[in-house]
Amino acid sequence: MEDAIFYRHIVPRWLWKLQKWLQIGSEKSYSESQHIIDKFLHECVSSRLDDERMKSMFNNDEESNFDLLNALVKENGDEMNQIDYKFLRDTAISLLGAGRSTISAALCWFFWLVSTHPLVEAKILEEIEQNFTTKEKNWVTLGVNDNLKKLVYLHGAICEALRLFPPVPFEHKCAVESDILPSGVRVSPNTMVYFSLYSMGRMEKIWGKDYLEFKPERWISEKGSNIYAPSYKFITFNAGPRSCLGRNISFIQMKIIAVALLSNFHMQVVEGHLVCPSLSIVLHMKHGLKVTVSKRGN
Length: 298
Ligand code: HEM
Fold this sequence. Notes:
Layout: H1 2-10, H2 13-22, H3 25-58, H4 68-76, H5 85-99, H6 101-115, H7 118-131, H8 139-142, H9 152-164, E1 170-174, E2 179-180, E3 186-187, E4 192-196, H10 197-200, H11 204-207, H12 247-262, E5 265-269, E6 291-295
Antiparallel strand pairs: 1-4, 2-3, 5-6
Helix pairs in contact: 2-3, 3-4, 3-5, 6-9, 6-12, 7-9
The structure holds protoporphyrin IX containing FE (HEM).
């Protein structure tokens, strides 16, 4: 999916549209992939629909069955036969596209930063120890545990990883009518404005002299609570009306995974492994993250 989006960013619109119409070049394989994804999602939606029918028959509305697709099926299917498959499929593909590789890229950079900053790792572990008993540190109970909110230092470390390595590194927006940017630059209608979220996370003017340092403390106030940074400063999830709808769920997911993995395992980056970003619309690690994993002693 990312390849297709990136391709359509760099190839003129008329060219990829023509390729798509003629079913040639990269667009041919994208159409084939889209067909496979559509088929897969159609099956997922159908099976959820069957689940919903079963549940309504047995009046079983357990919270443990909850997931995003179930919620969508419920919202859109008051009349069970009137489910809009296309809407559900398109919504599911948006959530899949927006929420899968962004989180995995963010976690990759986060674990790399943590494993190369032992002091930060030690502080995160200390905070986990103070807030969770051993029994709670598993996937199932973590998600429903209010203690996640107490992980102020971990929150700071995740914000730092997202600041230094924003999963969506650049974006563009198009002016509908002429406008003047806050900098005073005039923009005429249909002008495409590109902006780099990656650069904005690394500007001295915005973050201070230590802008290149991985410093979770940056996000913690003297009173020990998290410092809020407005989205126009911390732009990783974009700002304004089209900002990320998955921001809160992303933090929850990342915290659950960080606690579950860091409290159970130590990760050591393999010596000589080259860590650098790839050229794509999502800031993946070009060669992945090679680590040696060892179990922590209790
Ligand atoms: C660390 C993880 C994530 C980051 C950094 C991130 C970042 C972003 C950014 C920068 C945008 C704006 C894109 C644009 O303007 O073109 C966006 C939009 C969006 N994100 Fe996320 N995202 C993340 C995770 C998620 C998750 C987990 C979900 C859903 C489960 C999600 C759902 C969405 C949706 C639906 C939009 C489109 C909003 C709109 O256009 O109105 N995101 N995200």
